[in-house]
Design goal:
The protein is an alpha/beta fold and 57 residues long. It has one domain (1-15, 25-57). It is 16% helix and 21% strand. The protein contains one helix and three strands, in the order E-E-H-E. A three-stranded parallel β-sheet has the order 1-2-3, with helices on one face. The radius of gyration is 11 Å and the shape is globular. The protein starts with 8 loop residues before the first strand and ends with a strand.
Amino acid sequence: MVSAARRVIVLADASKAGRSHLNRFARPKDVSMLITSALDDETAQALDDAGMEVVRT
């Protein structure tokens, strides 16, 4: 599904960032935008550097 999309937008709680999970549906370079709650500046910058637009609410 990710490979067929023109734009991939992820809506996720900030507690998901920086943790290892059993399943992964996309690599950071495959995601166009992340909409999340309060994410620390360092993680947000790393994701931005990877080409992902980060929107913190």
